[in-house]
Design brief:
It is a single chain. This protein is an alpha+beta fold and 869 residues long. It is built from 14 helices and 46 strands. Strands 7-10-6-12-13-14-15 form a 7-stranded parallel sheet, sandwiched between helices. Strands 31, 32, 33, 38, 43, 45 and 46 form a 7-stranded antiparallel sheet that branches. Strands 34, 35, 36, 37, 39, 40 and 41 form a 7-stranded antiparallel sheet that branches. Helix 7 packs parallel to helix 10, helix 8 packs parallel to helix 9 and helix 10 crosses helix 11. It is globular, with a radius of gyration of 29 Å. It starts with 19 loop residues before the first strand and ends in a 27-residue tail after the last strand.
Length: 869
């Protein structure tokens, strides 16, 4: 599976960076895909070519100005997006932004590259036998590291000699296997997004032997198979096929037409990273592909990057887009990546082909930002054996959602063949709606959809749509329908009720009556989910609407605060709406991400010159807990350098405490808005040990998997980094950062911090991207603190009961308070509304006279009721 730390911040001030950057510049005007959506019907080939030519003409004067400003244009797109890729010195960025005709600019997102049992497991042979669906006439684009079209599974010669000759050929068409129809190399063998970001496109999209990712993927989706004696298998494809002996088993759509779009180079084993995914999608749309497979994902992406918009535009233009969910683990939420969670895209999680259980590596939803439900379906992704690049007739085993995605791309090819005239969104709905949750042990909607079911996808005549999303490209909107029902994110203080609509569409020639019910998932909190009608009749060629109402009480939602740090307290109200009747069975997953909301406010008071307190009142029935910090920094809202994804700093504090006798310091960083999973970025404090106004060390959150196993897992560990060497070490602690919160607490053992006499400077900092390419924020200057003399010190956290009161007492060192210019107290209440409401900050009233503690309010008598007259 491909991965990346880039999270796509379209308004980042890249001019503050140094050196040469690869950027994508969006231009004014609709691409062909959007023009087609607006036209309301399929454009002819002549109309598409004319539209592309007009866009190219409009691009020419803008490109001339970009080049005059110092940019080198490396690629042009007109189909899925209207944009050009540019290599340019960072100092020239702002000049390019100001060019007339430029809509926006962002750095290219980089992604890294990461059958036989799986194909029968999802029912492909049954569909070959009963429905004659093998993918004939369907065009499938594999956007990846290329395809070894000389491999016998694609009808190629299947020899090392053929591979070597083809790899060296300027015109490789004579080496194509029987079903390989062409493609493009957008990268060039020496390309690598970070170390050599200058692509050299050509017409030879052959895979590299030191990669092989794309060949393996293509073999699973559309390979024809290799017999035990090393020959290309030519059929028949029916229920007897799996009983034969193969060196490489057939793919899901063994007679589909194969196109390779190479976006990875060969210079690095595994292909390294790429920023060419948008160009690959654009090529596929321009060349009228029916299905795109993207076994590629940007890790923990924040949403909204250009490869997502390109993927959604491709769907709107009539292409079925399938993408892996990501290999970033499901231990924590919000680990799925781009472009898999784009609107209209079928995102695919991975299961073990033997047990049917989710793999530990498959990423988890929901989608960052709006908490929409993803992934769409699951497919086999562990121990998948498929074609080996340069192997002639050989196979290789690989793991990943990269291996699950092509199973579903193959299913899409079969469904396109079976359902002539259906739209891409209808094909996707048939695939997702027929997927079977009961075939996935431990089924959980946020980890993945049901197991993809080939017979169901190709024979379905009734499909269901949940959410309708507007795809906004260059200010132009089109509607893309999704295959799930997302109730979003909601903070709940009492009771929350919401109603959403499902649309059932009957593509058949006879009316169909279905009964429906809601089935809660095992991971769901208590929720009341009802349908407005127990059964529904959908007329032939028509549609019907079913309203789904969900009611959730705050009292049924546990606290978001755990006792181990990290993000172990994510809650969901989830399940499946199941429709059945006759031969039809449709499953639509639903999800609400709830968070119990306390409403704690506070007022500072003094008991004596050395003892203070914060008197707190909770106006909600949801109990809460408060922790005390010294408030040392504040930062204004809206000064994020880029797009705010929950990293706009508001307040910074610190405290001292012991953990089983071990001295610790806690840094608290509070944001103006909500984040989803803080491991997606970097949050911490710069430490100025010698008080010269410059950072010597940084204590911050960092994705634990990224630091220990070289892949993201969404767990925010605490690390201390030497700013001079940029080398760091984990402290052995995890950040306390509940998902969908606005505050991060970093517990750091004192022995992991640099040795000082106590006084240091600290400054809060954030970056929304793990790779340092996201939006950033920081406090303008350092605050001086003394780790050995905290001005305010509390002995323990305090609990505030629902609809009750409590006081958080603390000791006051007035000399330290004045010397360190402490702003005041900072009481962190993580169950309050995410953002600045999670902290109660104010000056400590040092000179105030002692005041009595508040008492619990008297019970309110019930209101009188009127008797009937």
């Amino acid at each position: 599976m491909a991965e990346s730390g880039a999270s796509g911040a379209a308004t980042v001030d890249l001019s503050s960076r140094e050196g040469t950057l690869s950027v994508i510049v969006e231009l004014e005007g609709d691409p062909v895909a959007v023009q087609q959506v607006k036209a309301g019907s399929e454009l002819s080939s002549t109309q598409k070519e004319s539209a592309r030519a007009e866009i190219q003409d409009a691009q020419d004067p803008v490109i001339a100005k970009i080049e005059a400003a110092g940019g080198a244009v490396t690629g042009r797109m007109q189909s899925a997006i209207n944009a050009v890729t540019v290599r340019v010195d960072a100092s020239k960025i702002n000049a390019i932004r100001e060019i007339e005709g430029v809509k926006g600019l962002e750095e290219l997102a980089e992604v890294n590259a990461q059958n036989t049992v799986g194909v029968p497991k999802i029912g492909a042979p049954e569909a070959w036998q009963a429905h004659g669906a093998t993918g004939k006439g369907v065009k499938v684009a594999i956007i990846d590291s290329g395809v070894d079209y000389t491999h016998a599974t694609f009808g190629g010669a299947g020899t090392a000699e053929a591979y070597n000759q083809a790899a060296a050929a300027a015109d490789p068409s004579s080496f194509y296997g029987a079903r390989f129809k062409g493609g493009i190399d957008l990268a060039g063998d020496a390309y690598e997004a970070r170390s050599n970001p200058n692509p050299k496109p050509d017409n030879n999209p052959i895979d590299c032997t030191n990669n092989g990712h794309g060949t393996h993927v293509a073999g699973t989706a559309v390979g024809g198979g290799v017999t035990a004696d090393g020959k290309s298998y030519a059929g028949p494809y029916d229920s007897s096929t799996p009983k034969q002996s193969f060196k490489v088993g057939p793919g899901v759509a063994p007679e589909a037409e194969i196109y390779a779009v190479k976006v990875f180079g060969c210079a690095v084993d595994g292909g390294g990273s790429t920023g060419l995914v948008p160009q690959g999608i654009d090529w596929a749309v321009a060349n009228d592909m029916d299905v795109i497979n993207l076994s590629i994902s940007a890790a923990l992406a924040g949403g909204g990057d250009i490869q997502e918009r390109a993927a959604s535009n491709a769907v709107a233009a009539g292409v079925v887009v399938v993408a892996g969910a990501g290999n970033f683990g499901n231990e924590t939420p919000y680990t799925n990546g781009s472009p898999g969670f784009a609107d209209g895209v079928l995102s695919v999680g991975a299961i073990d082909a033997k047990t049917g259980e989710y793999t530990t590596f498959t990423s988890s939803g929901p989608r960052s930002g709006d908490s929409a439900l993803r992934s769409s379906v699951t497919a086999p992704g562990l121990g998948v054996i498929s074609a080996k690049a340069g192997g002639g007739t050989d196979s290789v085993k690989m793991d990943g959602t990269s291996m699950a995605s092509p199973h579903v791309a193959g299913v899409a090819a079969l469904a396109v063949q079976a359902h002539q005239g259906w739209s891409a969104q209808e094909i996707a709905a048939a695939i997702a709606g027929s997927a079977d949750p009961e075939k996935v042990p431990g089924y959980k909607t946020t980890t993945g959809g049901g197991l993809v079911d080939v017979p169901g996808a190709v024979k379905s005549s009734v499909i269901a749509f949940g959410d309708s999303s507007e795809v906004d490209y260059n200010g132009k909107k089109s509607v893309v329908r999704n295959t799930s029902l997302s109730f979003g994110f909601k903070e709940i203080a009492d009771t929350h009720t919401d109603t959403r609509s499902l649309t059932l569409v009957n593509k058949g020639d006879a009316a169909v009556t279905l009964s429906g019910k809601a089935i809660a998932s095992a991971a769901s909190v208590k929720a009341d989910v009802t349908l407005d009608q127990p059964s529904v009749t959908i007329p032939a060629g028509g549609s019907a609407e079913v309203k789904v109402t969900m009611t959730v009480k705050a009292s049924d939602i546990p606290s978001s605060v755990g006792d181990k740090g990290g993000i172990e307290r994510f809650h969901e109200a989830s399940g499946t709406i199941r429709f059945e009747g006759g031969a039809e069975a449709i499953s639509v997953p639903y999800l609400l991400v709830p968070r119990a909301e306390s409403k704690v406010s506070g007022v500072g008071a003094m008991d004596s010159a050395t003892v203070g307190r914060v008197d707190m009142t909770n106006a909600s029935a949801v109990p809460a807990e408060a922790l005390l910090f010294n408030w040392v920094q504040t930062d204004p809202q809206g000064d994020v350098n880029g797009r705010d994804v929950g990293n706009d700093l508001a307040n910074v504090g610190f405290n001292r405490f012991d953990n089983n006798g071990k001295p610790m310091v806690g840094f608290a960083l509070n944001m103006h808005s909500r984040f989803n999973n803080i491991a997606a970025g970097l949050v911490g404090v710069e430490l100025d040990v010698d008080l010269d106004g410059k950072a010597d060390y940084v204590a911050m959150s960092y994705d634990h998997g990224r630091g220990t196993r070289n892949y993201f897992d969404g767990v925010p560990a605490v690390v201390v980094i030497d700013a001079k060497t940029n080398r760091g070490q984990f402290t052995g602690t995890l950040a306390m950062a509940p998902s969908d919160s606005g505050t991060v607490i970093l517990p750091v053992p004192m022995d992991k911090l640099p040795k000082t006499n106590g006084k240091i400077g600290i400054r809060g900092i954030t970056n929304s991207g793990q790779a340092g390419r996201g939006s950033v924020d920081s406090v303008d200057s350092f605050a001086t603190i003394d780790l050995n003399a905290a001005p305010l010190q509390a002995s323990a956290p305090v609990s505030i009961p629902g609809n009750g009161i409590a006081s958080l007492a603390f000791n006051v060192n007035q000399d330290a308070y004045a010397d360190q210019k402490t702003l005041g107290y900072m009481a962190v209440v993580l169950d309050n509304v995410a953002g600045t409401s999670e902290v109660l900050v104010d000056k400590v009233p040092l000179d105030a006279a002692p005041t009595p503690r508040p008492t619990s309010p008297a019970p309110v008598p019930p209101s009188p009721t009127a008797a009937p007259t």
